[in-house]
From TrEMBL:
Gene3D superfamilies: Cytochrome P450. This is Abscisic acid 8'-hydroxylase 1-like. It comes from Pyrus ussuriensis x Pyrus communis. The chain crosses the membrane at residues 6-27. GO terms for molecular function: (+)-abscisic acid 8'-hydroxylase activity; heme binding; iron ion binding.
Length: 373
Protein backbone atom coordinates (compact mmCIF):
# COMPACT_ATOMS: atom_id res chain seq x y z
CA UNK A 1 0.00 0.00 0.00
CA UNK A 2 2.73 2.43 1.02
CA UNK A 3 4.83 1.47 -2.01
CA UNK A 4 1.91 2.11 -4.37
CA UNK A 5 1.33 5.47 -2.72
CA UNK A 6 4.99 6.46 -3.19
CA UNK A 7 4.89 5.35 -6.83
CA UNK A 8 1.75 7.41 -7.39
CA UNK A 9 3.33 10.46 -5.76
CA UNK A 10 6.44 10.10 -7.91
CA UNK A 11 4.34 9.86 -11.09
CA UNK A 12 2.37 12.95 -10.09
CA UNK A 13 5.58 14.84 -9.33
CA UNK A 14 7.13 13.79 -12.66
CA UNK A 15 3.99 14.88 -14.52
CA UNK A 16 3.95 18.27 -12.77
CA UNK A 17 7.62 18.87 -13.64
CA UNK A 18 6.98 17.92 -17.27
CA UNK A 19 3.84 20.07 -17.43
CA UNK A 20 5.67 23.09 -16.03
CA UNK A 21 8.47 22.57 -18.52
CA UNK A 22 6.02 22.51 -21.45
CA UNK A 23 4.22 25.63 -20.22
CA UNK A 24 7.55 27.40 -19.72
CA UNK A 25 8.65 26.47 -23.24
CA UNK A 26 5.39 27.73 -24.78
CA UNK A 27 5.55 31.03 -22.88
CA UNK A 28 9.18 31.51 -23.89
CA UNK A 29 8.38 30.95 -27.56
CA UNK A 30 5.31 33.21 -27.49
CA UNK A 31 6.85 36.18 -25.71
CA UNK A 32 10.50 36.11 -26.76
CA UNK A 33 11.05 38.56 -29.64
CA UNK A 34 12.50 37.16 -32.85
CA UNK A 35 16.16 37.97 -33.31
CA UNK A 36 19.21 36.52 -35.00
CA UNK A 37 20.14 33.33 -33.22
CA UNK A 38 23.80 32.68 -32.53
CA UNK A 39 24.46 28.92 -32.57
CA UNK A 40 25.02 27.47 -29.10
CA UNK A 41 28.12 25.39 -28.36
CA UNK A 42 27.81 21.58 -28.46
CA UNK A 43 26.64 19.75 -25.35
CA UNK A 44 23.52 18.49 -23.62
CA UNK A 45 20.85 20.23 -21.53
CA UNK A 46 19.76 16.95 -19.94
CA UNK A 47 16.29 16.45 -18.49
CA UNK A 48 13.66 19.24 -18.32
CA UNK A 49 14.27 21.45 -15.26
CA UNK A 50 16.60 18.88 -13.68
CA UNK A 51 19.17 19.21 -16.45
CA UNK A 52 22.43 17.45 -15.63
CA UNK A 53 22.57 18.35 -11.94
CA UNK A 54 22.31 14.73 -10.81
CA UNK A 55 25.22 13.73 -13.07
CA UNK A 56 27.25 16.66 -11.72
CA UNK A 57 26.88 15.77 -8.04
CA UNK A 58 26.72 11.99 -8.31
CA UNK A 59 30.47 12.16 -8.92
CA UNK A 60 33.32 14.59 -8.35
CA UNK A 61 32.35 17.84 -10.15
CA UNK A 62 35.85 18.01 -11.63
CA UNK A 63 35.33 14.56 -13.21
CA UNK A 64 32.01 15.73 -14.68
CA UNK A 65 33.59 18.79 -16.27
CA UNK A 66 36.63 16.86 -17.47
CA UNK A 67 34.45 14.28 -19.25
CA UNK A 68 32.39 17.04 -20.88
CA UNK A 69 35.52 18.87 -21.98
CA UNK A 70 36.98 15.70 -23.47
CA UNK A 71 33.78 15.05 -25.43
CA UNK A 72 32.76 18.55 -26.53
CA UNK A 73 35.88 20.69 -26.19
CA UNK A 74 36.69 23.69 -23.98
CA UNK A 75 33.29 25.34 -24.59
CA UNK A 76 30.07 23.38 -24.10
CA UNK A 77 26.48 23.86 -22.98
CA UNK A 78 24.86 22.13 -20.01
CA UNK A 79 22.06 22.64 -17.47
CA UNK A 80 22.87 22.60 -13.75
CA UNK A 81 21.14 23.82 -10.59
CA UNK A 82 18.06 24.82 -12.58
CA UNK A 83 20.02 27.04 -15.00
CA UNK A 84 20.89 26.41 -18.65
CA UNK A 85 24.46 27.62 -19.12
CA UNK A 86 27.58 27.57 -21.26
CA UNK A 87 30.73 26.28 -19.56
CA UNK A 88 34.18 27.48 -20.61
CA UNK A 89 37.52 26.05 -19.50
CA UNK A 90 40.26 27.50 -21.68
CA UNK A 91 42.40 30.40 -20.37
CA UNK A 92 41.63 32.39 -23.54
CA UNK A 93 37.86 32.06 -23.13
CA UNK A 94 38.07 32.83 -19.40
CA UNK A 95 40.07 35.97 -20.15
CA UNK A 96 37.49 36.97 -22.77
CA UNK A 97 34.66 36.73 -20.22
CA UNK A 98 36.42 38.21 -17.19
CA UNK A 99 37.87 41.17 -19.09
CA UNK A 100 34.51 42.32 -20.49
CA UNK A 101 32.50 43.50 -17.52
CA UNK A 102 30.10 45.35 -19.83
CA UNK A 103 29.03 42.04 -21.42
CA UNK A 104 29.07 39.74 -18.38
CA UNK A 105 27.91 40.40 -14.83
CA UNK A 106 28.50 38.26 -11.71
CA UNK A 107 25.54 36.03 -10.98
CA UNK A 108 24.45 32.95 -9.06
CA UNK A 109 21.63 30.43 -9.50
CA UNK A 110 18.40 31.56 -7.82
CA UNK A 111 18.65 28.63 -5.39
CA UNK A 112 21.93 30.00 -4.02
CA UNK A 113 20.41 33.46 -3.63
CA UNK A 114 17.54 31.99 -1.62
CA UNK A 115 19.96 30.06 0.56
CA UNK A 116 22.46 32.83 1.30
CA UNK A 117 19.97 35.69 1.31
CA UNK A 118 18.99 38.16 -1.40
CA UNK A 119 20.75 41.06 0.35
CA UNK A 120 24.20 39.38 0.24
CA UNK A 121 26.93 41.31 -1.55
CA UNK A 122 27.31 38.71 -4.34
CA UNK A 123 23.87 39.44 -5.78
CA UNK A 124 24.26 43.21 -6.13
CA UNK A 125 26.21 45.77 -8.11
CA UNK A 126 26.58 49.53 -7.94
CA UNK A 127 26.56 51.68 -4.79
CA UNK A 128 25.19 48.99 -2.46
CA UNK A 129 27.88 46.53 -3.53
CA UNK A 130 30.60 49.17 -3.17
CA UNK A 131 29.43 50.10 0.34
CA UNK A 132 29.35 46.47 1.49
CA UNK A 133 32.76 45.79 0.00
CA UNK A 134 34.18 48.74 1.93
CA UNK A 135 32.63 47.51 5.20
CA UNK A 136 33.96 43.98 4.69
CA UNK A 137 37.47 45.18 3.88
CA UNK A 138 37.45 47.43 6.95
CA UNK A 139 36.97 44.38 9.19
CA UNK A 140 39.99 42.63 7.69
CA UNK A 141 42.45 45.52 7.65
CA UNK A 142 45.61 45.21 9.81
CA UNK A 143 44.11 47.49 12.46
CA UNK A 144 41.23 45.05 12.95
CA UNK A 145 43.23 41.80 12.73
CA UNK A 146 46.08 42.98 14.97
CA UNK A 147 44.19 42.36 18.22
CA UNK A 148 43.00 38.83 17.37
CA UNK A 149 46.36 37.31 16.31
CA UNK A 150 46.77 35.56 19.72
CA UNK A 151 43.24 34.14 19.41
CA UNK A 152 43.97 32.83 15.91
CA UNK A 153 47.14 31.20 17.26
CA UNK A 154 45.06 29.54 19.99
CA UNK A 155 42.62 28.17 17.39
CA UNK A 156 45.55 26.84 15.34
CA UNK A 157 47.07 25.09 18.37
CA UNK A 158 43.74 23.49 19.26
CA UNK A 159 43.36 22.29 15.67
CA UNK A 160 46.82 20.70 15.67
CA UNK A 161 46.16 18.99 19.02
CA UNK A 162 42.92 17.49 17.68
CA UNK A 163 44.84 15.99 14.74
CA UNK A 164 47.47 14.19 16.81
CA UNK A 165 47.56 10.41 16.54
CA UNK A 166 45.02 10.03 13.75
CA UNK A 167 44.78 9.99 9.97
CA UNK A 168 43.22 13.23 8.73
CA UNK A 169 41.70 14.73 5.62
CA UNK A 170 43.74 17.92 5.27
CA UNK A 171 41.07 19.88 3.41
CA UNK A 172 38.35 19.01 5.94
CA UNK A 173 40.60 19.96 8.87
CA UNK A 174 41.45 23.25 7.15
CA UNK A 175 37.74 23.92 6.65
CA UNK A 176 37.14 23.46 10.38
CA UNK A 177 40.06 25.74 11.22
CA UNK A 178 39.02 28.50 8.80
CA UNK A 179 35.41 28.30 9.99
CA UNK A 180 36.50 28.92 13.60
CA UNK A 181 38.70 31.82 12.52
CA UNK A 182 35.85 33.21 10.40
CA UNK A 183 33.48 33.18 13.39
CA UNK A 184 36.09 35.01 15.47
CA UNK A 185 36.63 37.62 12.72
CA UNK A 186 32.91 38.16 12.25
CA UNK A 187 31.56 38.08 15.81
CA UNK A 188 34.63 38.61 17.99
CA UNK A 189 34.33 37.00 21.42
CA UNK A 190 30.52 36.88 21.04
CA UNK A 191 30.86 33.79 18.84
CA UNK A 192 31.70 31.56 21.82
CA UNK A 193 28.11 31.59 23.10
CA UNK A 194 26.63 30.54 19.76
CA UNK A 195 29.54 28.63 18.17
CA UNK A 196 28.04 25.14 18.26
CA UNK A 197 24.60 26.26 17.03
CA UNK A 198 26.21 28.27 14.22
CA UNK A 199 28.33 25.29 13.20
CA UNK A 200 25.40 22.88 13.23
CA UNK A 201 23.24 25.16 11.09
CA UNK A 202 26.04 26.02 8.72
CA UNK A 203 27.04 22.41 8.07
CA UNK A 204 23.44 21.48 7.19
CA UNK A 205 23.16 24.56 4.97
CA UNK A 206 26.43 23.67 3.26
CA UNK A 207 25.23 20.16 2.38
CA UNK A 208 22.29 21.58 0.45
CA UNK A 209 24.16 24.49 -1.12
CA UNK A 210 24.83 22.67 -4.39
CA UNK A 211 21.80 20.38 -4.25
CA UNK A 212 18.94 20.27 -6.72
CA UNK A 213 16.63 23.23 -5.81
CA UNK A 214 13.54 21.12 -5.09
CA UNK A 215 11.92 22.36 -1.88
CA UNK A 216 10.11 19.16 -0.89
CA UNK A 217 10.29 17.42 2.52
CA UNK A 218 13.21 15.02 2.70
CA UNK A 219 15.39 16.77 0.12
CA UNK A 220 18.71 18.37 1.01
CA UNK A 221 17.45 21.69 -0.33
CA UNK A 222 14.38 21.59 1.93
CA UNK A 223 16.51 20.77 4.99
CA UNK A 224 18.87 23.62 4.11
CA UNK A 225 16.08 26.16 3.67
CA UNK A 226 14.58 25.06 7.00
CA UNK A 227 17.86 25.48 8.86
CA UNK A 228 18.43 28.79 7.03
CA UNK A 229 15.45 30.19 8.96
CA UNK A 230 16.92 28.91 12.22
CA UNK A 231 20.27 30.48 11.35
CA UNK A 232 18.53 33.81 10.73
CA UNK A 233 16.96 33.60 14.21
CA UNK A 234 20.35 32.94 15.83
CA UNK A 235 21.88 35.89 13.99
CA UNK A 236 18.96 38.08 15.05
CA UNK A 237 19.75 37.26 18.71
CA UNK A 238 23.45 38.05 18.21
CA UNK A 239 22.65 41.36 16.50
CA UNK A 240 20.17 42.32 19.23
CA UNK A 241 22.67 41.51 21.99
CA UNK A 242 25.43 43.46 20.24
CA UNK A 243 23.14 46.45 19.73
CA UNK A 244 22.32 46.55 23.46
CA UNK A 245 26.02 46.40 24.34
CA UNK A 246 26.86 49.16 21.88
CA UNK A 247 24.31 51.41 23.57
CA UNK A 248 25.87 50.80 27.00
CA UNK A 249 29.53 50.82 25.94
CA UNK A 250 31.62 53.16 23.87
CA UNK A 251 33.92 50.34 22.80
CA UNK A 252 34.60 50.22 19.07
CA UNK A 253 34.04 46.67 17.85
CA UNK A 254 36.44 46.03 14.99
CA UNK A 255 34.99 42.69 13.88
CA UNK A 256 32.80 42.35 10.79
CA UNK A 257 29.55 42.56 12.75
CA UNK A 258 30.77 45.79 14.32
CA UNK A 259 31.66 47.15 10.89
CA UNK A 260 28.19 46.38 9.53
CA UNK A 261 26.37 47.75 12.57
CA UNK A 262 28.57 50.84 12.77
CA UNK A 263 27.74 51.99 9.25
CA UNK A 264 26.43 55.56 9.44
CA UNK A 265 23.87 55.07 6.69
CA UNK A 266 22.63 51.97 8.49
CA UNK A 267 22.02 48.43 7.30
CA UNK A 268 18.86 46.52 8.14
CA UNK A 269 19.13 43.40 10.30
CA UNK A 270 18.30 41.28 7.25
CA UNK A 271 21.07 42.91 5.23
CA UNK A 272 23.53 42.27 8.06
CA UNK A 273 22.44 38.63 8.48
CA UNK A 274 22.51 37.87 4.74
CA UNK A 275 25.99 39.31 4.37
CA UNK A 276 27.34 37.54 7.46
CA UNK A 277 26.19 34.21 6.00
CA UNK A 278 27.57 35.18 2.60
CA UNK A 279 31.00 36.08 3.96
CA UNK A 280 31.24 32.76 5.82
CA UNK A 281 30.46 30.88 2.62
CA UNK A 282 32.87 32.98 0.57
CA UNK A 283 35.76 32.71 3.01
CA UNK A 284 35.60 29.16 4.33
CA UNK A 285 36.17 26.86 1.37
CA UNK A 286 38.43 29.22 -0.57
CA UNK A 287 40.74 29.88 2.39
CA UNK A 288 40.77 26.20 3.33
CA UNK A 289 41.65 25.37 -0.27
CA UNK A 290 44.62 27.77 -0.22
CA UNK A 291 45.91 26.30 3.06
CA UNK A 292 45.59 22.77 1.67
CA UNK A 293 47.52 23.69 -1.47
CA UNK A 294 50.24 25.25 0.72
CA UNK A 295 50.65 21.96 2.61
CA UNK A 296 50.82 20.07 -0.69
CA UNK A 297 53.38 22.38 -2.30
CA UNK A 298 55.58 22.44 0.81
CA UNK A 299 55.52 18.64 0.88
CA UNK A 300 56.64 18.56 -2.75
CA UNK A 301 59.45 21.08 -2.16
CA UNK A 302 61.59 19.90 0.82
CA UNK A 303 64.08 22.78 0.57
CA UNK A 304 61.30 25.39 0.79
CA UNK A 305 59.67 23.47 3.65
CA UNK A 306 62.98 23.44 5.52
CA UNK A 307 63.43 27.19 5.03
CA UNK A 308 59.86 27.99 6.15
CA UNK A 309 60.28 25.72 9.19
CA UNK A 310 63.53 27.48 10.12
CA UNK A 311 61.79 30.86 9.84
CA UNK A 312 58.97 29.75 12.16
CA UNK A 313 61.33 28.08 14.65
CA UNK A 314 63.35 31.29 14.91
CA UNK A 315 60.21 33.12 16.03
CA UNK A 316 59.45 30.35 18.55
CA UNK A 317 62.97 30.66 20.03
CA UNK A 318 62.61 34.42 20.36
CA UNK A 319 59.30 33.97 22.21
CA UNK A 320 60.88 31.41 24.55
CA UNK A 321 63.72 33.83 25.33
CA UNK A 322 61.20 36.57 26.12
CA UNK A 323 59.31 34.19 28.42
CA UNK A 324 62.50 33.38 30.36
CA UNK A 325 63.34 37.07 30.78
CA UNK A 326 59.86 38.23 31.78
CA UNK A 327 58.68 34.97 33.39
CA UNK A 328 55.34 34.96 31.59
CA UNK A 329 53.97 33.15 28.54
CA UNK A 330 54.35 35.07 25.31
CA UNK A 331 51.77 34.60 22.57
CA UNK A 332 52.13 35.32 18.88
CA UNK A 333 51.75 39.01 18.07
CA UNK A 334 51.14 41.13 14.99
CA UNK A 335 54.81 42.14 15.07
CA UNK A 336 55.81 38.46 14.86
CA UNK A 337 53.84 38.05 11.63
CA UNK A 338 56.09 40.70 10.08
CA UNK A 339 59.06 38.38 10.67
CA UNK A 340 57.72 35.82 8.18
CA UNK A 341 58.77 37.12 4.73
CA UNK A 342 59.41 33.65 3.29
CA UNK A 343 56.11 32.30 4.63
CA UNK A 344 54.36 35.28 3.06
CA UNK A 345 55.99 34.60 -0.32
CA UNK A 346 54.90 30.95 -0.15
CA UNK A 347 51.30 32.10 0.39
CA UNK A 348 51.53 34.58 -2.49
CA UNK A 349 52.98 31.98 -4.85
CA UNK A 350 50.27 29.50 -3.89
CA UNK A 351 47.59 32.08 -4.68
CA UNK A 352 49.24 32.61 -8.06
CA UNK A 353 49.48 29.00 -9.22
CA UNK A 354 46.73 27.06 -7.40
CA UNK A 355 43.17 26.50 -8.61
CA UNK A 356 41.05 27.75 -5.72
CA UNK A 357 37.58 27.49 -7.31
CA UNK A 358 36.23 24.69 -9.49
CA UNK A 359 34.00 27.14 -11.34
CA UNK A 360 32.20 30.45 -10.99
CA UNK A 361 29.17 32.06 -12.63
CA UNK A 362 28.72 34.98 -15.02
CA UNK A 363 25.54 36.10 -16.80
CA UNK A 364 25.63 37.54 -20.32
CA UNK A 365 23.73 40.84 -20.41
CA UNK A 366 23.24 40.41 -24.17
CA UNK A 367 23.90 37.78 -26.84
CA UNK A 368 27.66 37.27 -27.08
CA UNK A 369 29.55 35.51 -29.86
CA UNK A 370 32.92 33.87 -29.21
CA UNK A 371 34.74 31.95 -31.91
CA UNK A 372 31.56 31.62 -33.95
CA UNK A 373 29.45 30.29 -31.07
Amino acid sequence: MELNFLNSMFCIFAFVVFFLFVINSLITKLFTPNRRKIPLPPGSLGWPYIGETFQLYSQNPNVFFASKQKRFGSIFKTHILGCPCVMISSPEAAKFVLSRAHLFKPTFPVSKERMLGKEAIFFHQGDYHAKLRKLVLRAFMPEAIRSIVPDIESIAKDSLKSCQGRLINTFQEMKTFTFNVALLSIFGKDEILYREDLKRCYYILEKGYNSMPINLPGTLFHKSMKVRKELAQILAKIISTRRQRMQLEEEDHKDLLGSFMGDKEGLTDQQIADNVIGVIFAARDTTASVLTWIVKYLGENPSVLQAVTAEQEAIIRSKEEEEEEEEEEKVLSWADTKKMPLTCRVIQETLRVASILSFTFREAVEDVEYQGQ
